[in-house]
Amino acid sequence: MKTAIITGASRGIGRACALLLSKNGYNVLINYNRSEDEAKSLSNELGSAPHMLYKADISQKKEVFEMINSAADRFGGIDLLVNNAGIAEQKLFSDITEDDLQNMMNINFTGAFFASQAALPYMLHEKSGAIINISSMWGIVGGSCEVHYSASKAALLGFTKALAKELGPSGITVNAIAPGIIETDMMFDISEEEKNELIDNTPACRFGTPEDVAKTVLFLAENKFYTGQVLSPNGGFVIY
Ligand code: NAP
Fold first, then answer.
1. How far is Cα 202 from Cα 163, in angstroms, rounded to an integer?
2. Phi and psi dihedrals of 35, rounded to 5?
3. How far is Cα 129 from Cα 171, in angstroms, rounded to an integer?
4. Protein residue with its CA nearest to atom 21 in ligand 1
5. How far is the CA of 85 from the centre of ligand 1 (A)?
6. What percentage of the chain has pLDDT greater than the value 90?
7. In this predicted structure, which of 66-75, 146-155, 188-197 has the lowest mean pLDDT?
8. What share of the chain is helix, strand, coil (3-state, %, to 5)?
9. Measuring from atom 39 of ligand 1, which residue has the nearest CA?
10. What is the mean pLDDT of residues 131-138?
11. Phi and psi (nearest 5°) for 27?
């Protein structure tokens, strides 16, 4: 049985990934930070399917390494790492403080960097594995009033491409997903008017669902000739 670690799996996209991967035969480690109740409710939904909950702040290197090592100890290895945990923030560029920037980069980028370093020895041991980084379409095209968010997501794309080249010969794939607008808690501060405008500008005439992204994760996890690639489930909002 394969083992997947999903960071930020208590809610939204990470939660959908945990459910789909479990349904497809993976042991899953569900990482959460603040949303313990939501994580427990996901655990109830998974029932007897093999899984473990793990509280860790992805921006803390020590906690990240301990989490990855715990999953490997419990399940005997690591086959898939989904670097999904993330935060968003809308602010004018001039209002972004040093703390805002550090926090954004530490959670959205550095967390994925160290989780990948921690998982790597287990994947190298098997000469097999997959790392999937959840970026954003704003990391490709840039989002106004989301400069630090866009920069953190663009950093993930450079990280993905460089690491794919380095790890390809070791049988490990590294890919990124750059979702469009997905209906999760992350959209809570967008007004109804803005939502309607965004839908009007989406050829598919709807927002994405967490399941749309989870299906892309499963596809990349199982298709080993994809590496260094960026797939963007976005309903046609961005076509490049
Ligand atoms: P969400 O519903 O707000 O969920 C975010 C998840 O990240 C939660 O499970 C949260 O866990 C976790 N998280 C946040 N800070 C963390 C930390 N320091 N340590 C560990 N976990 C942490 O957001 P989502 O929409 O599912 O987003 C998931 C990923 O997709 C993010 O990387 C986001 O940037 C990306 N994305 C989302 C959209 C969208 O439109 N929704 C579009 C493009 C890309 P706790 O609540 O337990 O702290």
1. 32
2. -95, 70
3. 7
4. 8
5. 5
6. 97
7. 188-197
8. 50, 15, 35
9. 182
10. 98
11. -70, 140
Query: Is there a catalytic annotation at residue 54?
Result: no
**Ligand 1 contact via 189 beta carbon (within 6 Å):** no
What is the whole-number distance in angstroms between the Cα of residue 107 and the centre of ligand 1? 10
Q: Which of 26, 54, 122, 149 is catalytic?
A: 149
The ligand 1 atom nearest the CA atom of 83: 32
> With 90 as the cut, is the pLDDT of residue 190 above it?
no
Distance 134 CA to ligand 1 centre (A): 9
CATH number of this structure's domain 2-231, picked from the four choices 3.40.190.10, 3.40.50.720, 3.40.1000.10, 3.40.50.700: 3.40.50.720
Ligand 1 contacts CB of residue 139 (under 6 A): no
Cβ neighbourhood burial of 225 (10 Å; 0-12, 13-18, 19+): exposed
Q: Encode pLDDT of 96-108 as tens digits.
A: 999 999 999 999 9
